[in-house]
Amino acid sequence: MTQSTPTVTGIKLKRQSKLLEVTFDNDQTYNISCEMLRVFSPSAEVQRHGDPILVTHKKAVNIKALEPVGHYAVKITFDDGHDTGLYSWQVLHNLCSNQTELWQQYLARLRAEKGSREPLISMNIKYS
What we know:
Blueprint: E1 8-14, E2 19-24, E3 29-33, H1 34-39, H2 44-47, E4 63-69, E5 73-78, E6 86-88, H3 89-97, H4 99-112
């Protein structure tokens, strides 16, 4: 017998702490960071057909909008403009329930590729 993926029964954005609270129908509730959701986006842009790119500089990213997609997913729009990933209940459950291991793998990849979580600083340059 195959185990089905739990269904999301509640999503609450905690904008100030940059967390998404996700509740599943099996009574599990997780808090997952906006940064983690962004760097593990299921979008084709990030996943590149099984060869995911390393997404960097997203420590300060937040969610701008959440939009339900049928009864199976949510579309997340981030404040950096990224909005092409559909987070199915299966994807959300995997990210939430495996976030410790996935985050450690992400940090190891960042170190190996000399990446940074720190946001890029936009500078206004004035010429005289």
